[in-house]
Design goal:
Helices cover 82% and strands 0% of the residues. The protein has 95 residues and is mostly helical.
Length: 95
């Protein structure tokens, strides 16, 4: 019974990741795209933990999830610093 709940939540999480992918691909500003990618990375970390619960091997998946979360955080900081230092990037949407 509990496996069905975790599987249902994981499927809902994947559907929410698709919505974030729409924001990451077609966001009006660069910062919206970075934020969309960061949210996808965060949801992937939670999804890795849910997969660990489904396989009854949470210990291995916790290590993978922590490593992925750290890489996601560092990549988000790097991308944000890069785009904020560039002079020709428009951070606001032009209308």
């Amino acid at each position: 019974m509990m496996d069905h709940v975790v599987l249902g939540v994981a499927i809902a999480l994947v559907l929410l990741m698709v919505l974030c992918l729409v924001r990451a691909v077609g966001g009006p500003t660069v910062l919206d795209r970075i934020l969309g990618g960061n949210v996808i990375g965060t949801k992937t970390t939670v999804l890795l933990l849910m997969i660990g619960v489904l396989y009854d091997n949470v210990g291995m998946f916790v290590d993978i999830a922590i490593a992925y979360a750290l890489l996601n955080f560092i990549a988000t900081l790097g991308a944000t610093k890069y785009f904020l230092r560039r002079k020709n990037v428009h951070l606001e949407s032009e209308q």
